[in-house]
Design goal:
Layout lengths: L2 H7 L2 H29 L3 E2 L5 E2 L2 H31 L2 H11 L3
Antiparallel strand pairs: 1-2
Length: 101
């Protein structure tokens, strides 16, 4: 039995929580490569072959990484809190079924 089959047999609250967490991770992790690209746009190649960014570029990179971390941390916390409202027995059953070999 695969994870999708287990998810479809879970209560609606568990399905919703799972989809929400999956979206949070997908969007949150997509922000990091964007920060990398934005931070290194206009960076110059140093004499040792390493990209060197100025302080404004470093600040942009750090700002985007901080936004991504704030986004993922706060929304994950909120989603986790809402999951706790669900019936814990159903969550444990889904977790056990997903992790069966």
């Amino acid at each position: 039995m695969d994870a999708q089959e287990n998810l479809s047999s879970a209560p609606e609250g568990v399905q919703s929580a799972f989809r929400t967490m999956r979206l949070i991770v997908l969007v949150g992790w997509a922000i990091y490569p964007l920060g990398y690209v934005v931070g290194y746009v206009g960076a110059e190649m140093g004499s040792d072959g390493i990209l060197v960014m100025n302080s404004a570029q470093a600040a942009n990179l750090n700002a985007i990484y901080n936004i991504a971390t704030l986004y993922t941390s706060s929304l994950t916390g909120q989603a986790s809190a809402s999951i706790n409202i669900l019936n814990i027995t159903q969550i444990q059953k889904l977790y056990i079924n997903i992790n069966k070999p």
